[in-house]
Amino acid sequence: LPMIEEKLNKYFGPEAVDGKYEKKEGAAKAEYTPRSPEELAQIESLIRTAAGIDTARGDVVTVQSAPFDTSAYEEMAAEVEGAAPIDLRQWIAYGGMVGLALLLFLFVLRPAIGWITRTSADLQELQTFPQTVEQLENQLGMHVAGEGEIDYRAKLKELIASDPKATAEMMREWLKARR
Q: What is the spatial distance between Cα 15 and Cα 43, in angstroms, rounded to a whole number?
């Protein structure tokens, strides 16, 4: 980008500086005090240096102390003073209760609800199975004659003849269990 040089013919700059406000004891409103001539001269010197003021060119800078309208600021300050202060301890307590509720939900209620729903599903599944041995035997087509009619000795002889090793192992286990 080419540098554009413009020549400033003349600078005229009136500058207004707010004074000081001091609140006296018992007074409702702060009292305005204008800036001293020394302070105004110091501010004018700063402006002359910053703006590159040249008196030979005819540049003029005027600095005066004048009260600024602070009514909007005073209204906002009154609103802030009237507002209830934020109590950090109260917010921490609320945050702690919310955190505790969240932990309770995550680590107690959610697992309990999951356990209950799993249990009810398991219970429904278990209800489809036969409830007694007789129902199971009927379902599998293994109807056994009444207990009085079973010949246990014949069954035992049949078992021993069919698998002598398994029978011997079963006998050892029975004897160990009796000890």
A: 9
Which two structure tokens, joined as six digits, stand for 88? 């950090």
Q: Give pLDDT tens digits for 25-71.
A: 877 777 888 888 999 899 888 888 888 888 888 888 888 888 888 78
Residue of higher predicted confidence among 146 and 127: 127
4 by DSSP, 3-state: which? coil
Alpha helices by DSSP H, 67-163: 71-82, 88-104, 110-127, 133-140, 152-162
**Contact 70/29 with Cβ under 8 angstroms?**
no
In this prediction, residue 94 carries a pLDDT of: 92
Query: For the purposes of burial, counting CB atoms within 10 Å of the CB of 63, is it exposed (0-12), middle (13-18) or buried (19 or more)?
Result: buried
- Dihedral (C-alpha) 62, 67, 71, 76: value to the nearest 10 degrees? 80
Task: Judge if pTM exceeds 0.90.
Answer: no
State the distance between the two ends of the chain, measured CA to CA, in whole angstroms: 106
